[in-house]
Amino acid sequence: MASITIFFISLIVLLPPNSAIHPPSSNSNLIQQACKATRYQQLCESSLTRYPNANANQIIQSALNISYASLRLAQSMAQSILKASAGNPSRTTAANSCIQHLANSEQRLKSTVEALPRGEMKNGRAWTSAGLAYQYDCWSALKYVNDTEMVTETMLFLDRLIGKTSNALSLMMAYDVFGEKMASWGPPKTERDGFWERGGSWGDGKRLGVPAGLKADMTVCKGGGCIIRDSAGGGERGAGSG
User: Fold this and answer.
1) How buried is residue 138: exposed, middle or buried, by Cβ count under 10 Å (0-12/13-18/19+)?
2) Alpha carbon distance 97, 87 (integer Å)
3) Using one digit for the tens of pLDDT, what is the confidence trace for 117-165?
4) What pLDDT score does 187 carry?
5) Three-class SS string for the chain?
6) Selecting from 1.20.140.40, 3.90.1170.20, 1.10.3470.10, 2.60.120.200, what CATH number does the domain 2-191 have?
7) In this predicted model, what pLDDT tens digit does every residue of 156-211 receive, in sequence order?
8) Which of 137, 148, 154 lies closest to 90 in space, CA to CA?
9) 124 or 238, which is more confident
10) Phi, psi for 177 (deg, rounded to 5)
11) pLDDT tier at 232, thresholds 50, 70, 90
12) Contact 48/59 with Cβ under 8 angstroms?
């Protein structure tokens, strides 16, 4: 029964959007608001407008559909490079590496699709992040053998795939952190921006961050003017410049 369930979940991911559906203007407004949470907003909006999206959950599902469909096409393109690389050991090796990386990415995205219906958003984010890394690994493998038009076109396609997967991951993070009210979603931020997520289900729920009230316990010497006391009883010694 479990295998049948996974099979139908995979079918849902592979279903293409209905080209006859023309989303209303309210749908466009939702997409614009959601895509503010991504790094590639224009790509996000242009991709999602082909799908009917009524809420945050549907937008995330559509973003994953888009990423997965593009991944399958990227796998086909990598296979074509391999077939065209007979007699070229370097390109053959790169193509095989790319194919393996994309297979790994596919497994991670499938794990995401299985995790989200169970409410495991953080697990889904982890799987998607891993899938994104494997897509970049494929692109990186090909950049060393980028000597044909076929490889160049595949790398350009992979670049867009990476952007689509990154967008799906950003949407998942926004939902996980701010909830389904997309009005609170905004551009991605990290600890460098002073943003810290709250602790997960295993934590106490307190907001993370750099502890307040810390006192300096070290001195950076310039010009060798510091005296360092050896706590092991070795006396004092001068510090060099640092």
Assistant:
1) buried
2) 17
3) 999 999 999 999 999 999 999 999 999 999 999 999 999 999 999 999 9
4) 87
5) CHHHHHHHHHHHHHCCCCCCCCCCHHHHHHHHHHHCCCCCHHHHHHHHCCCCCCCHHHHHHHHHHHHHHHHHHHHHHHHHHHHCCCCCHHHHHHHHHHHHHHHHHHHHHHHHHHHHHHCCHHHHHHHHHHHHHHHHHHHHHHHHHCCCHHHHHHHHHHHHHHHHHHHHHHHHHHHHHHCCCHHHCCCCCCHHHCCCCECCCCCCCCECCCCCCCCCCCCCCCCCCCEEEECCCCEEEECCCC
6) 1.20.140.40
7) 999 999 999 999 999 999 999 999 999 999 888 877 777 777 654 444 445 555 66
8) 148
9) 124
10) -90, -45
11) low
12) yes
Give Cα 241 distance to the centre of its chain. 42
Contacts of 74 (CB under 8 A, 6+ apart): 102, 135, 138, 154, 157, 158, 161
Q: What residue has token string 């219906």?
A: 117
**The tokens of 202 are what?**
């295993």
Using alpha carbons, list the distances in angstroms from residue 8 to 11, 19, 69, 123. Answer: 5, 22, 16, 20
Yes or no: say if 168 and 39 are a contact pair by the CB < 8 Å rule: no
How far apart are alpha carbons 84 and 61 in whole angstroms?
35
Contact 236, 228 (CB under 8 A): yes
Tokens 């996000």 -> residue = 44
Contact by Cβ (8 Å): 37, 171: yes
pLDDT for the residue 235: 53
For 93, residues 6+ apart whose C-beta sits below 8 A from its C-beta are: none
